[in-house]
Design a protein that fits this description.
The protein is an alpha+beta fold and 101 residues long. The chain has 4 helices and 4 strands, in the order αβαββαβα. The protein has a 4-stranded antiparallel β-sheet.
Length: 101
């Protein structure tokens, strides 16, 4: 005889996990960001980041870029749907990313 968890408990658990994921990947207002291309080429994203006075830190996973700068300034240089801005956690983007310059 197997016991199943009630549906409301499963939904609460899924909601809690989703909130934690969103909080973990929410980009900071200032700092290290992961710029994931959606419709734009990585070169165009690098140009947009540099135009926003951000510093290129390196390559992220896949075709993404790791930059250090102000989220709002970078977002203002991108068109809607060009890229996704995320937090750049050290385990995904390299251990030396967390060091401030």
């Amino acid at each position: 005889m197997t016991r199943r968890l009630p549906l409301p408990l499963l939904l609460h658990g899924a909601l809690f996990a989703a909130v934690l994921l969103v909080l973990a990947l929410r980009p900071p207002a200032q700092g290290t960001l992961l710029v994931v291309p959606i419709a734009a080429a990585p070169g165009a994203l690098a140009s947009a980041a540099l135009a926003a006075d951000a510093r290129l830190v390196g390559r992220g996973p896949g075709r993404s870029l790791v930059v250090r700068g102000a989220r709002d300034r970078i977002k203002a240089r991108l068109r809607l749907g060009d890229a996704l801005l995320l937090a750049a956690p050290s385990p995904l983007c390299g251990d030396d990313i967390g060091v401030t310059a």
